[in-house]
Fold this protein.
Amino acid sequence: MKATPLVVCCALALGRTAVAQAFGESIQISQPAMHSTGAATSVPTSPLQRSGLPQQVGVQVMNDAYRGQADCHCAKPPVFLPSPKDVAPGAVVILTSPSPNAVIYYTADGWTPTETSTKYETPIPILSNTRIQAFAIEPGKAPSPIVAGSYTLSGTPTPLPPDEAISGSTVPKGTPIRLQTGNRLTSETANVGDHFFVLLDQNLIVNGKMIAHRGMSVDAIVTAVKPAGQNGVSGMIVFRLAGLSANGVNIPLDGMYTLVAPDIGSQINHIADTSFVHVAGPLPQGNQAKIEPGMMLTASVASDVAVSQ
């Protein structure tokens, strides 16, 4: 019996920023505080499947010239967050890569992207039915395959999250920074030292100056993993965040986060009709802890940071 995991957590990453830094705060986020950016399934292309990125519904590979090669030595393809689907007017699409040196180029007008196309730097607002095509380049590697996804408008406009606006020239210690996860990770496959990313979910503005754009990435590092065990033992993932670095400013973030899967025994005890529950002897293997794209997180600034004007 599987259930969406209870999460004690915080943070993730987009773009190309990554510097490690430890923290000491713990927060717990329950299921209602989280939302998913979309389901994910396999994309039938070797480079995308080997990339270690969330595999997505609705993503098409436009020029998979590397299919069948054992090692194409190409850049990892960009990932679309959320996965291509129907969205409300005003929703934004984030393009990301786990590679810190990757540069993403994209088009939203039907033309095939090249290195003369728009360089991805900020989330892309969806104001009409839009088809986004994108690829990534990394130093010393061949360009990634071009991937494409279509977004169709439906429903009412989704308001963007408010900015974090700070007066003065200092980001004070304790300032909350809202993020959301951008990778899929489970306690069954994760290892200590693995890197994944979380995304900034708001613009950070200091004294009228944009310091960090919504959608920028923050590196997250797994510090402990416990796979699910027999007799209902739940899986667990512990991770910390690196600092947020943008426009020459490094903002250290504070927090250590733990995600624990729901306890099987508790689940069984809360089932209204126990006639559907047949457990003979010890409980079955516990649930794996799962980090899904789109889980909302909050970090705090670890120390005062001066921002030059």
Remarks:
- The radius of gyration is 20 Å.
- The longest helix spans residues 264-269.
